[in-house]
Amino acid sequence: MRKMKKMLMAGILLLLMAACTGGPEYVVQDNVVVYSYWTFSFGRLNDTLPGADPSTFKAVNSWLGHDSERVYYENRLVPGVDVATLKAERRPLFRDKNDYYYEATPMRVADLSSFKILKWFEDDFWARDSRYAYFDTLCIRDVDLASFEIMNMMVARDKKQVYYFGRVLPGADPATFEPMGNSVYYRDKSHVWYYDELMPDADLATFTVDGLSHAHDKYGPFKNGKRDTVETEP
Question: Residue 12 and residue 223: Cα distance in Å, rounded?
Fold first, then answer.
């Protein structure tokens, strides 16, 4: 019974929070358009959209809206977007006849007709067209598309090089590069990395991960990519 009461109270609390917070939305009030959203620090905030025409404004969804001439991502004006061909993809991606846009930033896609998302990771993605690969707004120009593959949210590779968040990881051998378990450590035939930081003092032959950011080799432990010096009592 006590457990049931706790569950009921938790459900009521969630409902009250939802009623108080609500989701983000566009609202026309006092002859201006505002983007209304909840924050834990300041409660509900209403940001006026710069230049928005309340008489023609339309919300595409909770994060994209437009009037007859201007497009807004959340509370930000996105200059240069063609209103007539505006289309929401998946947050935070949208497009018009000229380009794709990530949040309020144009991606400058080289070939719109062949552009496609390869894989989403929450708000981040890897993509490609007939010429280049992309990580969010970053265009990867020197890429071999035939051998390009995604390893995880942070890492991709082709036959020439490894890419970390879309940027070349210097010195990494793509043929042998691999993540080490479910950790944030990586290795190839010659090196170990913590995220994208090379670990020159790691002994590759004996390097073993012990968790997300803990590891060890024959010389001792590592924590967050650094040699962990454990002080002992005299």
Answer: 42
Asked if 105 and 115 count as a contact pair (C-beta separation under 8 A), the reply is no
CA distance 198 to 188: 11
Instruction: Give the C-alpha separation, 232 to 207, whole Å.
Output: 23
Residue the block writes with tokens 């917070």? 21
Separation CA 208–CA 210 (nearest Å): 7
Query: What does the pLDDT look like over 176-217, one tens digit per residue?
Result: 999 999 999 999 999 999 999 999 999 999 999 999 999 999
Query: Rounded CA gap, 119 and 28, in Å?
Result: 36
- Contacts of residue 168, defined as CB under 8 A and 6 or more positions apart, other chains included, come to 142, 161, 162
Residues constituting the chain: 234
Look at residue 230 in the predicted model and tell me its pLDDT.
63
Q: CA-CA distance, 19 to 38, in Å (whole number)?
A: 11
Contact predicate 92/73, CB 8 Å: yes
Instruction: Quickly list H helices, the chain.
Output: 2-21
Residue 123 CB neighbour total at 10 angstroms = 12
With residue 47 as reference, give the H or E element that holds it.
strand 43-48
- Categorise residue 211: left if φ over 0, alpha if ψ from -120 to 50, beta otherwise: left
> Which residues fall within 8 angstroms of residue 114, CB to CB, at 6 or more apart?
128, 129, 130
